[in-house]
Structure formats: structure tokens, C-alpha cells
Amino acid sequence: MTTLLHIDASARPGRSGIDPHGSHSRRLSARFVEQWQKVRPGDRILYRDVGQHPPHPVSGEWIHAAFTKPEAREPWMHDVLAESDALVDELLEADVIVAGVPMYNFGVPAGFKAYIDNIVRVGRTFGFDRSRQGLPYWPMLTEMHKRLVVLSARGDYGYAPGERMAHTNHVEPHICTVFGYLGIDDVHGIAVEYDEFGDERLQASLAQAEQDIDALVMAWAKNLKEDLVDA
Ligand SMILES: Cc1cc2nc3c(=O)[nH]c(=O)nc-3n(C[C@H](O)[C@H](O)[C@H](O)COP(=O)(O)O)c2cc1C
């Protein structure tokens, strides 16, 4: 069975098209999951809302605990790391990660940054050893063949690669760097633009994003590793 981890990061609680002032990124992530369930109704869906319930930012105690070897950890260290451990467990279970992540001030929202800081964990998602030949760090999730789709929303337009605002977009590039560091390199991005204009360009962008999501679901749902094993 495939496990899909659905993450939302918008501070806006509702979905556009359904709720007043609703979130486009939540609309897109819900669309992906709904389409997925149509094609693969038996799959398991995990849900994490870091927009409404942001993880705690990492603290000095968290860093001390995370960089203490597990066998040397004191009870308070396990307590401090409990939330991070739960987020890592969930990520490890996921085959497909569907992340609705809007652009806030050219980067990811604070709740999603806190999520990232909690899942980049030495000894769990990346390895680190100063005595190692070459680089002292390595990704730990590479062999798990996870896939990630980033479903973003922006007020302005022109943030796609090669476009006029691309150099200011620190959402997808940041997410690709971080998840690539952990060994998740199969990353796809789909975004809605023109939210702040609210005109027909927004509607066209939403329609295009939903079409792209439907196509991606069909492509991924048919081409999972378990299907290749079954074939
Ligand atoms: C705090 C904040 C910062 C924002 N910063 C940017 C920005 O840097 N660039 C941009 O194009 N839009 C920006 N926007 C607009 C949002 O990206 C846009 O409203 C998007 O639709 C929000 O995602 P959501 O619809 O999923 O809530 C910002 C919105 C907020 C609330």
C-alpha cells in the first residue's frame, strides 16, 4: 500500500472556490489528494497542517538533544525531540508527499520552515560523520524513492524558471535543496499566480494548475515502485 503525506502550510484556513478568502495552495493540495484517491482508493493518507498548527521552532535544547547520540540522551532530550520524531516518522512512512506551500515574502511560510527544521535530523534523515572520507554528511532517504509535489500560490506573477521574478523565488528552490539534502530528488512544482490581481489571469492560472495536477496524478499513480514490482 502506498502512503501519501498531505501537508498544508497556508495561514488561511479555508479553500479558494469553496470558502471566502480561502487558500489556493490548500485548494490545489486537496485537488491532488482527491484525484489520487479516485485512481488509488486503497492508499493511506496522512495529513499535517503546519499552517494552522505550526511545529515548534528548533531551540538550543532541541539542537543539544538532536546532536547527542541516541544512546547518550537524557529523558528531557527525548521529550524535546518528541515532536520532531513524530514528524520524521510520518515523513519516513510517506511514499508521496503533497505539500501546499504559499509564497510569503519570497520564501516559505514560517510554519513550513519550522517543519523543515524539524525533519532535517541527524541520524534519522541525514548522516553526519566528521571522520568520513569526502563530505561528512550524506542523505539517508535516497533508497526510499520518495516523490514530492510542491503546490504553491503567489500574489504576483512571473516566478517560474526563466521568468522575470524567478531570481526572487525562494520557495521551490529552497524546498528542492532541503529535500534533495535528505535524498528526495524527485520533486515537481505546480503553482497558481496572480492572486493579488484577482482577475481572469488568476482564474486561468487556477485552471492550468488543476489541469497540471490531474495530469501529474495520472502519471505518478500509474508509475509507482510497487506497480513496477507487481508488473
Ligand atoms: C505574509 C504574506 C507575504 C506574501 N508575500 C508574497 C510575495 O513575496 N510574493 C508574492 O507574489 N505574493 C506574496 N503574498 C501573496 C500570497 O503568496 C498569495 O496571497 C497566495 O495566494 C497565498 O497562498 P494561499 O492562497 O494558499 O493562502 C504574500 C502573502 C502574505 C499573507
TrEMBL record:
Pfam families for the chain: Flavodoxin_2
Function: Also exhibits azoreductase activity. Catalyzes the reductive cleavage of the azo bond in aromatic azo compounds to the corresponding amines. Quinone reductase that provides resistance to thiol-specific stress caused by electrophilic quinones.
Protein name per its UniProtKB record: FMN dependent NADH:quinone oxidoreductase
Residue ranges annotated for the Flavodoxin-like fold domain, each copy included: 4-215
Binding, FMN: 10, 23-25, 103-106
Broadest EC class assigned to this enzyme: oxidoreductase
HAMAP family in UniProt: Azoreductase_type1 (MF_01216)
GO terms assigned for molecular function: electron transfer activity; FMN binding; oxidoreductase activity, acting on NAD(P)H as acceptor; oxidoreductase activity, acting on NAD(P)H, quinone or similar compound as acceptor
Cleaved signal peptide residues: none
Catalytic activity: 2 a quinone + NADH + H(+) = 2 a 1,4-benzosemiquinone + NAD(+); N,N-dimethyl-1,4-phenylenediamine + anthranilate + 2 NAD(+) = 2-(4-dimethylaminophenyl)diazenylbenzoate + 2 NADH + 2 H(+)
Cofactor field: FMN
Assigned protein family: Belongs to the azoreductase type 1 family.
EC number per UniProt: 1.6.5.-, 1.7.1.17
Source species of the chain: Billgrantia montanilacus
Co-factor remark: Binds 1 FMN per subunit.
Keywords (A to Z) from UniProt: Flavoprotein, FMN, NAD, Oxidoreductase
Transmembrane segments: none
Quaternary structure (record): Homodimer.
